[in-house]
Every structure is written in structure tokens, then in C-alpha cells.
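Worked example 3 (structure in, sequence out).
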């Protein structure tokens, strides 16, 4: 049996094996929880070992996409997705006030409702 003596090759192949292990679920198990409150909702994402920089939050129309990517340190073109979740937001969410925070290894996305959406409002009837 012939051993590989090129240390740079071994370093690169080890990183790729680690990346493939991550794709197979070897590094991080992601847990998503949604809590609803009177003034809005909060999406909590726990992903052990995932850095805050790896998370991405993208809003397009009323679709919120949360995902994280494991980026290769040596090769910026090499990346592996860790998780991807898409949420269709209800019309009462104020899209302009959505916030994302990362604290204590947890991503929190706050979805505030429009002010007064739960308050009844009488509609004036116009005479034509």
C-alpha cells in the first residue's frame, strides 16, 4: 500500500470529505420553531456549529427564504447548503419591519403584524 505524501493534497481532500459529511447531515441538525403572538410572529432557527455569517434571510414579495451555506475556507467557489426553508407570509405581516437577529447560536426572524390589524374598524358607507 502506497501512502500519499503530498500534504497539500491531503489537506484539500480532508476538507472536501468534511464538506461532504456536512451535506450528508454529519455536522448540524437544524430545528425550526414558529411562535405566534398578538403583535407578530417569531421564527427561531437552531443550527449547532453554524456561524452567523453562514445564515441568509431573503424576502421576495411575501415569500421569506431562510438558508445557510457552508463555505470552503480554501476555495470560495466551493460551498454546500446546510438547510433551506421557505415561508409564505400572511398579509397581516408588515414586510417593511421584518428583523433578523443572531444570538446564542440561534437565528430569530421577527415578523411584526401591521398596527391595528386585530382591531375592528367601521367602514364608512358613501352615498352615490
Amino acid at each position: 500500500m502506497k501512502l500519499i505524501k503530498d500534504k497539500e493534497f491531503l489537506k484539500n481532500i480532508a476538507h472536501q470529505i468534511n464538506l461532504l459529511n456536512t451535506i450528508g447531515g454529519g455536522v448540524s441538525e437544524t430545528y425550526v420553531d414558529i411562535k405566534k403572538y398578538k403583535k407578530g410572529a417569531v421564527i427561531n432557527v437552531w443550527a449547532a456549529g453554524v456561524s452567523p455569517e453562514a445564515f441568509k434571510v431573503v424576502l421576495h414579495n411575501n415569500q421569506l427564504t431562510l438558508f445557510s451555506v457552508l463555505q470552503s475556507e480554501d476555495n470560495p467557489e466551493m460551498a454546500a447548503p446546510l438547510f433551506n426553508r421557505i415561508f409564505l407570509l400572511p398579509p397581516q405581516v408588515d414586510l417593511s419591519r421584518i428583523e433578523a437577529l443572531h444570538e446564542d447560536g440561534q437565528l430569530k426572524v421577527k415578523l411584526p403584524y401591521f398596527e391595528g390589524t386585530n382591531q375592528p374598524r367601521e367602514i364608512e358607507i358613501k352615498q352615490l
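Notes: The beta strands are 30-36, 40-47, 55-60, 63-71, 79-88, 99-103, 106-112. The chain has one helix and seven strands.
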